[in-house]
Design goal:
Helix content: over 70%
Number of strands: 0
Number of domains: 1
Structural class: mainly alpha
Number of helices: 10
Order of helices and strands: HHHHHHHHHH
Shape: globular
């Protein structure tokens, strides 16, 4: 019988093993880039699809969200924290592209990796042990800004036409949110089942240590890429 704990463990172990390859490959597909560069004017549905696709395949964003909802039992808390994350990445995604404000992709992705580390450490009480009290809501919002800047950097690499830019950018952002909802629906449902089993108490700590490992590997790969470039 497949148990929720086994599913979570398998996903985290696979992520830790595959992160080096995924981190190097986590970019916009050449076919998608060619399509975007050929578009002139509004193209709502294609950009909705591209936004959803990027979120569903964005393992770094998903890893952070897993950490955010790991110990959230109430739906209103899930909505609150996810809304703060959404607000943050929407501001920098839209603002970054429209204002042409970019950043080094390696640096931003390294910070995103550290956001995963932060959430894992917080979930195991690491900050409280050293007497450091961090407002989780503020942290999620701030890291959301960095996640959005990461998205903005990748979108600017697409060289989107200025004709219909705002419409297409909003459609892309809405697509990101739809992809986020799909991922969270699965993750929250999985945790809702797992929390009612004794294995959650036994393996929650280990799962968050694995999450920290994933974040550290993500960060290390991006630092190495920055140095090499």
């Amino acid at each position: 019988m497949i148990r929720p704990a086994h599913v979570v463990a398998a996903c985290l172990i696979a992520a830790a093993l595959l992160v080096p390859e995924l981190a190097l490959a986590h970019d916009v597909a050449e076919g998608d880039k060619a399509f975007v560069q050929s578009v002139e004017g509004p193209a709502v549905f294609p950009f909705l699809y591209l936004g959803a696709k990027h979120m569903v395949t964005g393992y770094d964003h998903i890893a952070f969200l897993v950490g955010v909802v790991f110990f959230l039992h109430r739906l209103r808390d899930v909505v609150l924290y996810v809304s703060l994350f959404t607000l943050g990445h929407s501001i920098t995604l839209l603002g970054g592209v429209l204002l042409g404000i970019g950043a080094n992709a390696y640096v931003i992705d390294a910070i995103i990796g550290l956001s995963v580390v932060y959430k894992g450490v917080e979930n195991i009480g690491g900050f409280k042990r050293i007497g450091l009290n961090i407002d989780t809501r503020a942290a999620v919002l701030v890291f959301g800004l960095f996640h959005g800047m990461g998205l903005a950097t990748k979108v600017m690499d697409l060289e989107m036409s200025r004709d219909g830019l705002l419409t297409n950018l909003v459609a892309f952002n809405v697509g990101v949110e739809l992809g986020q909802v799909l991922v969270l629906a699965f993750v929250v449902s999985l945790f809702a089942v797992w929390r009612h089993r004794s294995s959650f108490t036994r393996y929650a700590f280990a799962a968050n240590v694995a999450l920290i490992l994933v974040g550290l590997v993500l960060t290390a790969v991006q630092v190495e890429g920055y140095i090499s470039s």
